Amino acid sequence: MIAQEAGKQIGSVAKASGVPIKTIRYYEELGLLKTIGRTEGGYRLFDPGIFTRLSFIKRAQKLGLSLAEIKEFLDVHDQGELPCDHVKVKLKDKVAEIDQQIQQLQVLKLELEGLLSGWETRPANPETTICPIIQGY
After folding, report:
1. Tens digits of per-residue pLDDT, 25-50?
2. Which of 6, 83, 115, 126 could tie 73 with a disulfide, CB 3.0–4.6 Å?
3. Roughly what angle, to the nearest 10 degrees, separates helices 50-62 and 67-78?
C-alpha cells in the first residue's frame, strides 16, 4: 500500500500531463517509462518523476527525434549519466537532414515555378491532354 500512496496512477498521470493513457502504455511497452508497481486493482503506478520524463519525451519528439533515439537518451540517463553528448550528435544529424530537405524543396519550387510560367491555356490536342501543366505539353 505504501507504493500506492507514493505512486501516481496512470489516469492521474494522463490527466495532469495531457498525454493519453494509451500513449503512456505504449511508452511503457517501448521501455521509455517504467512503473513502480500496481495497485490492488491492477492499475499501473508511476514515480512522481514521470512528468519530467514525459515532458522530455514530448519535447524531443517536437524536435524531430524518434522514439528509438529518445529511448537511447533515457537509457543513458537511467545509467546515471547525462545524455547530452548523444543528444548533440543526433541534433547535428537532424540539422543536416533539414538542410538536405531544404535543398530538395528549393529544386522542387523552381520546377513548379517553371511549370507555372510556361504553360499554354489551350493544348494542341485537348482530347488526349488532361492538364498541360503537369504533362509538359
Report:
1. 999 999 999 999 888 888 889 998 99
2. 83
3. 140
